[in-house]
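for the recovery benchmark. tokens below, seq after
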């Protein structure tokens, strides 16, 4: 109960959009926010509270063992493989770092994903 209701409220806690191009896919690296769309980097006003919770692209809190889907095509570093949008990944594990999800992607293998590029699903 209440999961749908919490959905839109949680979105307000996502990182702010890029001030240059308004991309919603910005991510945090150390003290900077970085936009993957245009490459803009800037300092957020408030200190990060990211350590406590890992949230997906729409603000759902992720936990170890969750199932997520990838929301955009992601190049796999060091290979020509691409994790296609919609790929379902089961049994994620949350880790520290730039790529905060450790998981086994079907057809790709063990790799790190960024939580802002996935969405939690019930299955
Ligand atoms: Zn941008």
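predicted aa per position
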């Amino acid at each position: 109960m209440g999961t749908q209701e919490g959905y839109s409220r949680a979105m307000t806690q996502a990182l702010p959009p890029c001030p240059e191009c308004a991309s919603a896919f910005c991510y945090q690296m150390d003290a900077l926010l970085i936009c993957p769309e245009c490459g803009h980097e800037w300092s957020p006003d408030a200190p990060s509270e990211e350590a406590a919770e890992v949230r997906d692209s729409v603000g759902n809190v992720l936990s170890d063992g969750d199932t997520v889907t990838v929301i955009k095509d992601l190049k796999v570093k060091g290979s020509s493989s691409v994790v296609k949008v919609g790929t379902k990944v089961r049994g994620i594990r949350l880790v520290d770092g730039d790529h905060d999800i450790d998981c086994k992607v079907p057809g790709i293998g063990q790799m790190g994903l960024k939580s802002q590029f996935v969405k939690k699903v019930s299955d």
